[in-house]
Amino acid sequence: MELPYDIKISRRALLKLSAASAGAMAVPLAQAQTPASGGQAALATTLSLKVNGETRQLEADLRTTLLDVLREHLHLTGTKKGCDHGQCGACTILLDGRRVNACLTLAVMHQGAEITTIEGLGSPERMHPLQEAFVRHDGYQCGYCTPGQICSAVGMLDEVRQGIPSHVSPDLQTRPLLSVDEIRERMSGNICRCGAYSNIVEAITEQAGGQA
């Protein structure tokens, strides 16, 4: 199709027009992020979280992950930062009863949530039964992944009790049996670089009452 008139524009002029258009679009966005008082837009907020049974309030940047809030603000360093990309499971915690990777979620998304870290499960003086099982079965070597492994195992056993199937469950309509395959599949998001997987399975099996 031919235009009723010829449009001729140089490459330099085109670049100038593009830059001007981008600048014009950016102005409303900048104005939207700046409060009416003319000051800088607020990037922090007050958080209220129930962590290990205790309500904790703190100021945090809106972009802060839940993992960094636990480690840097609340000093609960049992939750480990491994890959920081949700691939290793070292930062697994229980969030409102469900296991999650704390590095993949922003703290501001969980206002008022109930969070359990490894510190909330047990202590050296009064260990959680799964912690005791890990010790008995040498379910760790360097120990870096162990807090995430144990939190994940606690959440996983609760999923089985609720009848939630996994990818290896033979029947999605019946309550899954806690077989070795089920344990390995359900725990596959937690990596042990030392390779203590067989001992981890033994520890979980013992805690589950020898069902696997």
Automatic annotation (TrEMBL):
Keyword Oxidoreductase attached: yes
PROSITE patterns: 2FE2S_FER_1 (PS00197), 2FE2S_FER_2 (PS51085), TAT (PS51318)
Organism superkingdom: Bacteria
SUPFAM superfamilies: 2Fe-2S ferredoxin-like, CO dehydrogenase ISP C-domain like
Alphabetical keyword list: 2Fe-2S, Iron, Iron-sulfur, Metal-binding, Oxidoreductase, Signal
Matching InterPro entries: 2Fe-2S-bd, 2Fe-2S-bd_dom_sf, 2Fe-2S_ferredoxin-like_sf, 2Fe-2S_ferredoxin-type, 2Fe2S_fd_BS, Aldehyde_Oxdr_Iron-Sulfur, Beta-grasp_dom_sf, TAT_signal
Pfam families referenced in this protein's UniProt entry, alphabetically: Fer2, Fer2_2
GO molecular function: 2 iron, 2 sulfur cluster binding; metal ion binding; oxidoreductase activity, acting on the aldehyde or oxo group of donors
Record carries keyword Ribosomal protein: no
Domain 2Fe-2S ferredoxin-type residues, every copy: 45-121
Signal peptide boundaries: 1-32
GO CC terms in record: periplasmic space
NCBIfam families registered for this protein in UniProt: PRK11433.1
Name of the protein this chain belongs to: Aldehyde dehydrogenase iron-sulfur subunit
